[in-house]
Design goal:
The complex is a heterodimer of chains A (219) and B (146). Chain A has 219 residues and is an alpha+beta fold. Chain A has one domain: Histidine kinase-like ATPase, C-terminal domain (Heat Shock Protein 90). Chain A has 6 helices and 5 strands. Chain A has a 5-stranded antiparallel β-sheet with strand order 1-2-3-5-4, with helices on one face. Chain B has 146 residues and is α/β, with parallel strands linked by helices. Chain B has helices at 7-24, 31-37, 64-74, 92-107, 119-127, 140-145, and strands at 40-44, 47-51, 55-56, 79-83, 89-90, 111-115, 135-137. In chain B, the strands form 2 sheets. Chain B has a 5-stranded mixed β-sheet with strand order 1-2-4-6-7. In chain B, strands 3-5 form a two-stranded parallel ribbon. In chain B, strand 1 and strand 2 (47-51) form a beta hairpin. The longest helix of chain B is centred in the first third of the chain and has 18 residues, at 7-24. The chains are: A alpha+beta (219), B alpha/beta (146). At the A-B interface, helix 1, helix 2 and helix 4 of A face helix 4 and helix 5 of B.
C-alpha cells in the first residue's frame, strides 16, 4: 500500500500541480496513458471545484490525498470552504451556481465519467470531501481498452444541441488512437510527467518540498 | 485563404487590454511568461482563430471571455476556429468556454469549428457533448475552410 497526503493553497495555478502530482503517484501502478489522463481530468475537476466554489477564489487550504490498495487507486480532495447545501442537486449534469455562464456545470459528471466511484460528503460552512476511486487492472496483454471503457457523453439540453440526428457512436472512433503498445505509451507518459512536474514545481515553489517526499515513497 | 487584414487591429487591441490589466494588477510581474502560456489570437478576414494553451483548464482561461468579447465587439467575425494543436490537457472548464463561444456565434448566424485534438482532448470533448455540436478537422486549412 502506498499513500501520500499534501496541503496546497487554494490557487488556480495549483490545479495543474495537483493533477500532475497525482499522475506521478499513480504511475507505479503501471497504468495505461488513458487511465492516467482520466485520473488527471477527475482530479482537475475536484480541485477546480474547491478553488472556485469551496473557497470562492479566496484563501484556503486544499488537502490532496492518494492511496493505492491492490488494483484500486483512491484520490481524496478536501477543502474547508463553504460546503454544498444540496449535494444531490450539485451532482446533476449541467447544474451550476455560476452567473457568468462560463462554467459548464459538468464537474461532477466528469468525475463520475472518468472514475469508477465518486463519493461526496459536504456540510455547509464546514467544507467538502470528494473521494474518487478507480481500478487500475494489471493486464498481461497490450492493454487496449474496449469500447465499454469510453465514458458516456453528458447530455446537452435542446437549446444547445442542434444536430439531433448525429448519434453518440462517434465515441467509438476515439478507441483506435489508444492502440499504441502499452510499454511505449508508459515510457512516454512518464517522461511527459517528469518534465511537467519540474515545470509545475518551478511555479509553485511553496509546494515544491512535497515533490521530494512523494518521489521518495517506496511502493 | 483570405488575406489576414484585421490581424493588426486585433493584436493592438489585445495589447491595450493586457496593458490595462497589468496596471490594475490583474496580471502579476510574470506577465510575459503568462502570455506565452495562455491563448493567442489570429484573424483571417472574418475568421478568428484562437490558439489554445497547452493546459486548457480554469487557470489558463480566466481572461478568455473578456478578450474574445472585446474582439467580437470591435470586429465583424462570422467564424471562430479553435486550434488544439498545442493542447495536451483539457477539463470541463474548457467545455464551458467552447459552449459559450458556440452560443455567441450561433446567435449571430456564425460558425465554430476546431482542429488538432489529441486523444485526451477528444475523450473530454466527447463526454462534454462538443463533438455533436461542433465540426472537428485534422488540419488548420480544413477547419478554416469547413
Amino acid at each position: 500500500m502506498a499513500h501520500f497526503r499534501m496541503e496546497i493553497e487554494s490557487l488556480s495555478e495549483n490545479e495543474e500541480f495537483a493533477r500532475v502530482v497525482t499522475a506521478v503517484f499513480m504511475s507505479r501502478m503501471n497504468p495505461t496513458l488513458e487511465q492516467v489522463e482520466d485520473v488527471k481530468t477527475a482530479v482537475s475537476e475536484a480541485v477546480t471545484n474547491a478553488v472556485i466554489h469551496g473557497y470562492q477564489n479566496g484563501e484556503g487550504v486544499i488537502v490532496l490525498e492518494g492511496r493505492i490498495q491492490g488494483d484500486w487507486l483512491t484520490v481524496t480532495v478536501e477543502d474547508r470552504g463553504s460546503g454544498i447545501r444540496d449535494v444531490k442537486r450539485a451532482m446533476e449534469p449541467l447544474y451550476t451556481t455560476d452567473k457568468t455562464g462560463e462554467r459548464s456545470g459538468m464537474g461532477f459528471s466528469f468525475m463520475e465519467a472518468f472514475m469508477d466511484q465518486v463519493q461526496v460528503e459536504s456540510e455547509p460552512g464546514k467544507g467538502t470531501i470528494v473521494q474518487m476511486k478507480k481500478e487500475i487492472r494489471q493486464e498481461q496483454d497490450g492493454g487496449i481498452p474496449n469500447a465499454a471503457s469510453i465514458p458516456k457523453p453528458v447530455s446537452i439540453p435542446e437549446s444547445v444541441n442542434t444536430s439531433k440526428a448525429v448519434s453518440t457512436s462517434k465515441a467509438a472512433s476515439t478507441s483506435k488512437a489508444a492502440s499504441t503498445s502499452k510499454a511505449a505509451s508508459i515510457s512516454r507518459s512518464v517522461s511527459i510527467l517528469e518534465s511537467r512536474l519540474v515545470s509545475a514545481c518551478g511555479r509553485s515553489s511553496r509546494t515544491a518540498g512535497v515533490i521530494q517526499s512523494i518521489l521518495s515513497i517506496q511502493p | 485563404m483570405p488575406i489576414c487584414c484585421f490581424r493588426h487591429t486585433f493584436v493592438q487591441l489585445l495589447d491595450i487590454w493586457r496593458a490595462v490589466n497589468l496596471q490594475m494588477g490583474h496580471i502579476s510581474q510574470k506577465g510575459k511568461t503568462m502570455a506565452q502560456k495562455t491563448f493567442s489570437y489570429e484573424a483571417c478576414g472574418q475568421i478568428l482563430i484562437i490558439h489554445l494553451p497547452r493546459e486548457f483548464d480554469h487557470h489558463n482561461c480566466r481572461n478568455l471571455k473578456y478578450e474574445t468579447d472585446l474582439l467580437l465587439a470591435e470586429n465583424y467575425i462570422n467564424k471562430i476556429v479553435f486550434d488544439f494543436s498545442r493542447t495536451q490537457f483539457m477539463d470541463s472548464s474548457g467545455i464551458g468556454i467552447l459552449l459559450n463561444r458556440y452560443k455567441q456565434m450561433k446567435a449571430n448566424g456564425g460558425k465554430t469549428t476546431l482542429y488538432g485534438v489529441n486523444n485526451q482532448v477528444s475523450r473530454v470533448l466527447t463526454v462534454g457533448g462538443i463533438t455533436r455540436i461542433m465540426e472537428h478537422f485534422d488540419t488548420r486549412d480544413e477547419a478554416v475552410a469547413g
